[in-house]
Amino acid sequence: MKFLILTCTILFSQLSWSNCNEVESLHPFEDSADGQIFTVKAKGYVPNRSTKVPAVFILPPIVGETVLDRRMGQKLCQNGIAAYILNVVKVIPTEEEYPNLLVHDQSFVRALAGTRAVMKSLSANTALNGKFGIIGTSQGGMFAAYVAGSEPAIEASVIVVGAGNVPGVLASSDQEYIKAQREARLKIFNLTTEAEYEALLRPLIPNDPLAVAQQISPGSVYFFIAQNDTTVPTRFQRELLKKIPSPLVFEMKGDHFQGIVKAGTVHAEKIVRFFKRKLN
Fold first, then answer.
1. Which among 80, 50, 56 is positioned nearest to 69, based on CA atoms?
2. Mean pLDDT per 10-residue run, the chain (280 residues)?
3. Which of helix, strand or coil describes residue 87?
4. Closest Cα partner for 98 from 224, 197, 219?
5. How far apart (Å, rounded) are the C-alpha atoms in residues 99 and 279?
6. 67 vs 38, 70, 112, 127, 133, CA distance in Å?
7. pLDDT tens across 154-212, in order?
């Protein structure tokens, strides 16, 4: 099929800095949710080196790619690790999304398939050594945990304020979009409580990070927890943490936003050192 031939089409090389090149690429694959072609957009930061390097995938939060994602990509690159920010989220109009309770399970399946499509493309890249890691923040952290537990080729993972128990998160998060979605669905499905909503969702999301977390290689996860998080509630971060074999854990004071900023700035060097230790 044409989309297989087009996989990993390089669009352009934008700039170079500190021996790093920025590139963008497209990675199409067939989405099992609807049988249509979905294209993962990847923004890469690739070291300009003669030796082969590992690669780390960056999965952004629910708001999409942020300056912290780009900063992390550049920092990894400057330390001899290729980094690729992946857009694995399919935008669905609210009038279609709200009544469709299957979209959450499909989003995890799509994130895994999209990451695998990029990995397949990069396997032919002679600049890489074949070792892969992943880092995700918030929603991206939930996706990253699911990918790490489902794909054995992921040798190192960093989860920043991510969680398991997707129905629980959807039923209690104070994130603006998730809250609006929940309130609309309470009316659509004639529900009166968040507990009823959670119970309705639970059998419809089998592809939860909790279901695969125990398959993650022991000692391969660095988990950053925000102690006062109500957006991806801390209790669900801890629930996922308990399922992961022998993780390295760092707890941060503060709420969801503060945790994201701290991990991406104050603790960024810890993350880079972790990936260097696990992937080199």
1. 56
2. 33 51 95 94 94 97 97 97 97 96 98 97 92 98 98 98 98 98 98 98 98 98 98 98 98 98 98 97
3. strand
4. 197
5. 42
6. 25, 5, 24, 26, 20
7. 999 999 999 999 999 999 999 999 999 999 999 999 999 999 999 999 999 999 999 99
What does the block give as tokens for 119?
């990995």
Please tell me whether the overall predicted TM-score, pTM, comes out greater than 0.85 for this model.
yes
Which tokens go with 89? 């989220």
**117, two tokens:** 């499509």
CB 109 within 8 A of CB 103: no
114: nearest Cα among 136, 86, 91? 86
Give exposure, 14-34, as e/b (b: 16+ Cβ within 10 Å).
Answer: eeeeeebbbbbbbbbbebebe
Query: Rounded CA gap, 184 and 141, in Å?
Result: 25
CA dist., res. 187 & res. 130, Å (int): 49
**Which ranges in 151-208 belong to alpha helices (H)?**
166-172, 176-188, 194-201
Under a CB-based contact definition with an 8 Å cutoff, are residues 135 and 157 in contact? Answer: yes
